[in-house]
Structure of 3'(2'),5'-bisphosphate nucleotidase CysQ:
Amino acid sequence: MPAADLQLLIDAALEAGKIATRYSGDTAQRWDKPGGAGPVTEADLAVNAMLEQRLPFARPGYGWLSEETEDNSARLSKDRLFIIDPIDGTRSFAEGSRTWAHSLAVAERGEVTAAVIFLPRRDLLYAAAKGQGATLNGAPIRVSGVSTLETAEILAAKPNLDPRHWRQGEVPEFKRVYRPSLAYRLALVGQGRFDGMLTLRPSWEWDIAAGDLIIREAGGTCSDRLGLPLRFNNANPRLNGVIAAGAAVHQILRARLDPGSTGIRP
């Protein structure tokens, strides 16, 4: 089933790319969601509408969780569900950047089993199915083998380096880099382009689900900020931060983080 679901997600992601790229980014209609939930564009909604019609039609027994669909509790009774971010990095999309992505995943009983992250403006398609490895444009990928934090390049927003998040207030030394899309950051770690990814704020499942499987199938470790495995289809679809890296760097980051820190406010 993961292999069949993966091909379904790949085909849907390619179609999503065709739809999104019809819009010109900075001229696409944009507005802010209520409650400070961030921006949305007409492209987000057009992609979501296609995916919400296409994917459940192909898998009528699956639940549905998407950033651009009002959530309801019906998904909680489903063994399998789609977890979708129609456009991850909406601000980048609206600015005309190329670093936004479509993030599509299937989870079964809380574990992601098929995943795609597609960046149509960069022609990058990351994919993974449970037990079958991870790929970029069809070629196998592996996480970095770097084993020391001092030589590591970690994808992280600057607020993650606040001393209050680290044991004894001592922020470890590593090279910090940044990309605006959470899904893309995870995919880059799976590719081995960077050695780790860190976000300490509560994170939506749709931003993380696809990248979680890609990291794990690429030989890495993906957990919440306390080092616990990620589980999906929660009643409140938010995760307690994310640490993603090769095994050695992941272990060091987890050990250096203060487990008593409350995280970054969303």
